[in-house]
TrEMBL record:
Domain spans labelled Beta-ketoacyl-[acyl-carrier-protein] synthase III N-terminal: 107-185
Organism: candidate division TA06 bacterium 34_109
Functional description taken from the UniProt entry: Catalyzes the condensation reaction of fatty acid synthesis by the addition to an acyl acceptor of two carbons from malonyl-ACP. Catalyzes the first condensation reaction which initiates fatty acid synthesis and may therefore play a role in governing the total rate of fatty acid production. Possesses both acetoacetyl-ACP synthase and acetyl transacylase activities. Its substrate specificity determines the biosynthesis of branched-chain and/or straight-chain of fatty acids.
Domain of life assignment: Bacteria
A Pfam family reported for this protein in Swiss-Prot or TrEMBL: ACP_syn_III_C
Protein name (record): Beta-ketoacyl-[acyl-carrier-protein] synthase III
GO molecular function, one term: 3-oxoacyl-[acyl-carrier-protein] synthase activity
Length: 326
């Protein structure tokens, strides 16, 4: 088996920032409630003209420029998102078009918040089983486009943004030491967008009932998120034969600071090793982990040889975790 490694990261958050105080003018909420229950202070919101692929293209260009990667060397584009530009074709197709990379395969993965880790797993498979050498893996969303801005139980939680990584075969000790992904469809109705697909095609009634927006039973999702993120992290650690004491950075999906703290405590990872940016980004679903990795990379927090644990959980339910030697 070839081991793949991340050779560059990128991210893009839209310019507009919506604070908790801004939200208090839209729904019956408070900065105190949002901060205490979630850890979120503000989130970025895409403009009307900005689609998910537009954020992805900016993230990819930043990655290519910063890490001196020739875009023409990319053999494949994989985009984890549940807020595609259109139902079809894929969002990755629009990235391919904008980056002018004709003929290479480009496709989306629908695995919600676990989309980036699913993307890494698929890139690993592709690099191991085809002649393709380099993949651009993106993850991210414009969740603001499917948010019910009258529903205080969901509208305070999400933000827009895309992150990405370029991966290729590793020729040294660095790379993905393990990658674990899973899913359980039995609780699909706890977090979903009810209309717009073939089950419930768009009608005047579905639009009127706001069925094209995020519906979530937050309390129930919370319980599964805590248990599953612990389980996934343990699995990835044991597959890599790494103890949690060896972790330099724990980079969890940023859905709720209480979920992050509980998972870290269970894994016995001290607070100073846990990367948190939920206060500034809110929950960007598939964007969460690649945006975090890129911010850490740019801030010089990731040093060669560091052991990093990434861990995600999302709608489906889906989950994924990976141990990476940087
Ligand atoms: O990324 C994919 C996975 N997603 C997640 O992991 C999200 C998991 N869930 C959560 O993070 C939490 O369940 C939430 C942050 C969504 C909610 O926190 P909670 O502590 O579970 O609150 P709750 O839903 O039990 O609501 C408590 C109270 C309710 O009022 P009553 O019934 O006690 O009077 C809500 O109506 O808080 C009320 N509430 C709010 N109050 C002010 C709900 N949303 C708000 C709000 N502002 N925005």
């Amino acid at each position: 088996m070839k081991r793949i490694k991340i050779i560059g990261t990128g991210s893009y958050l839209p310019e507009k920032v919506l604070t908790n105080d801004d939200l208090t003018k839209m729904v019956d909420t408070s900065d105190e409630w949002i901060t205490q229950r979630t850890g979120i202070k503000e989130r970025h919101i895409a403009s009307q003209e900005e689609a998910t692929s537009d954020l992805g293209v900016k993230a990819a260009r930043r990655c290519f420029e910063t890490f001196d990667i020739d875009p023409k060397s990319i053999d494949c584009i994989i985009f984890g998102t549940v807020t595609p530009d259109k139902l079809f074709p894929s969002t990755a197709i629009y990235v391919q078009k904008a980056l002018n990379l004709p003929n290479i395969p480009a496709f989306d993965i629908s695995a919600a918040c676990s989309g980036f880790i699913y993307g890494l797993a698929i890139a690993n498979g592709i690099i191991n089983s085809t002649s393709m050498k380099r993949a651009l893996v993106l993850g991210g969303e414009t969740l603001s486009k499917v948010t019910n801005w009258n529903d205080r139980s969901t509208c305070v939680l999400f933000g827009d943004g895309v992150g990405c990584a370029v991966v290729e075969e590793s020729h040294d000790q660095s790379g993905l030491l393990s990658i674990y992904i899973g899913a359980d469809g039995n609780m699909e109705n706890l977090l979903h967008q009810p209309a717009g697909g073939s089950r419930n095609p768009a009608t005047f009634e579905t639009v009127e009932k706001k069925l094209h927006t995020i519906h979530m039973e937050g309390n129930e999702v919370y319980k599964y998120a805590v248990n599953t993120m612990q389980m996934a992290a343990e699995k990835a650690l044991s597959m890599a034969n790494i103890s949690s004491e060896d972790i330099k950075w724990f980079v969890p999906h940023q859905a709720n600071i209480r979920i992050i703290d509980t998972t870290a405590k269970y894994l016995k990872v001290p607070k100073e090793k846990v990367f948190v940016n939920i206060d500034k980004t809110a929950n960007t679903s598939a964007g969460s982990i690649p945006i975090a990795l890129d911010q850490m990379n740019r801030d010089g927090l990731l040093k060669k040889g560091d052991i990093i644990l990434i861990d995600a959980f999302g709608a489906g339910f889906t989950w994924g975790a990976s141990v990476i030697r940087w």
